[in-house]
Amino acid sequence: MELDGELDRIAEQQDRSATFELIGKLADPSVGGPERERIGYVLTRLGDPRAVARLTGIGRDRERPAEVRVAALRVLENAGMCPEGAELRAWWNTGDDVVRACVLRQAERGEADLLEPVARDPHHPLHRHALTGIEFRFEEPRWQQYKIQALDHPDPEVRRTAADVLCWDEPVAAEPALRRAAADNDTGVARAAIDTLRYYQSRATLRLLHEIAQGTGERASAAQDSKDDMLVDFESAQLRIRDWVAPVADLLGQPEPETPLPPTPGRPKPSAPPAAEIFAAYSDLDGPWAAKLDALHHYDWTRVPTVDRPGLAAFLSGHPDQEVRTLCCSILSTWQEVDPLLALAHDPELGVRKSAVYYLRFVPPSREIATLTWDLVASGKVASTSGYEALATCAAHTPPGELDDRLIELARTDLREDIRAEAVSQLGDHLDPLLPLLSEPPLVTWGVHIRILNACAKSALHPPAASELRAVDSLPLAAALADLDLAPPC
């Protein structure tokens, strides 16, 4: 295979006829680092379920060079094909640090007992990998502290990882430490901190980015990029919060009136092929797959004959390719095929389960779905996006008012930020028990306060505690307060 000419085509088409040849090249010790990295990227794009056993064997083979093993495991990670649950624990129990690093990066909330001792121990040799593992779905305050503390680690690789992983949850407590890290003596750490600071939308951070951007070199370039990104939101909001942005008004461009874009006429979706053609095309795991996966997005599944739907539902929901199972969740929801969608809510793969739980929201109300999704929330197994989507699905399947007491309790006492925020939104105008939260400091972000303010604006409530928030240096919070001010009085 001529790599230079073929790899781009293979990746673009997701041509799985090349899978096993590429695995052979990935495992070849004579292949150089950059070439192996490129091959790994292409294998990740292919997402071929047939590759799992071969890549797993390479990754767990202690006789192979470490760089080969890591490359194989990285493909499994990046393609979402690593094991979960008991099998992931079995990997941990091998005692092999190459494999254990992968386990830490892939651990879910069910493996928190493996992850936390390493995440809180700055001296552990795999500490950096544990920080990567808690970037997503570990949103409680203690996990944020592990990331923030790592910004002061003596190893610059650990500090850079900490700066990188703080971009998702955006804990308020991280902002001062990230500003300090923007001046780190290691350029890689400083750049990572500067890149992450674009998501911490305060006047102080905007001013800092502007000052760094006045210099030269990589830091200045990174700061300019982050500043430009942040200015988009500042400039779009400045007419609503003119007094609040006054201290940084010299950095903002002239506000432009918002001009609504004309509606773009949608193209009619093509009809799905006959069921027999779908069975034939998607049963063949070889060859190009990009077009086949894209087609699952774009076919008009409403026009599939009712008589064909159960067979197609069973075929797609049981497909060996997890991407097919993920994409078919919206199709099953469109067809109101509840049983296979419920089955996918218990799929071995996280992304499939998440998609199924989301799309269960759009099927007819069901006590079974309400119980399933509430149990997910109450168990603590879900957080972040998976958590609030599960709670929203639960609310969609629960009679009005029946969930209110549990929502109030979640908003008051749960430690998962997105669960708390979604609980506020699901309560609608039943806000009175939550208004005291406006006087409390943020648990992780200002997100709960903003949700309460948004609900107050919709209900024309003007809580006195809102005035206490006007001194806070947060653009999203200032915008929410401005919306509240525009709401008519009761």
Chain-wise SSE layout:
Elements: H1 3-13, H2 19-26, H3 33-46, H4 52-59, H5 66-78, H6 85-92, H7 97-106, H8 112-119, H9 127-133, H10 141-149, H11 156-165, H12 175-181, H13 187-197, H14 203-213, H15 217-237, H16 242-245, H17 275-283, H18 290-298, H19 309-317, H20 322-335, H21 338-344, H22 350-359, H23 367-379, H24 384-396, H25 404-413, H26 417-427, H27 447-458, H28 475-486
Keywords:
490 residues, mainly alpha, 28 helices, globular
Beta-strand residue fraction: under 5%
**Which consecutive residue ranges, at least 5 long each, have pLDDT under 50?**
none
The tally of strands reads 0
Count of individual helical segments = 28
What does this structure look like?
The protein has 490 residues and is mostly helical. The protein is 59% helix and 0% strand. The protein contains 28 helices and no strands. The protein has helices at residues 3-13, 19-26, 33-46, 52-59, 66-78, 85-92, 97-106, 112-119, 127-133, 141-149, 156-165, 175-181, 187-197, 203-213, 217-237, 242-245, 275-283, 290-298, 309-317, 322-335, 338-344, 350-359, 367-379, 384-396, 404-413, 417-427, 447-458, 475-486. Helix 2 packs antiparallel against helix 3 (33-46). It is globular, with a radius of gyration of 25 Å. The relative contact order is 0.06.
Q: Would you summarize the structure shown here?
A:
By secondary structure, the protein is mainly α.
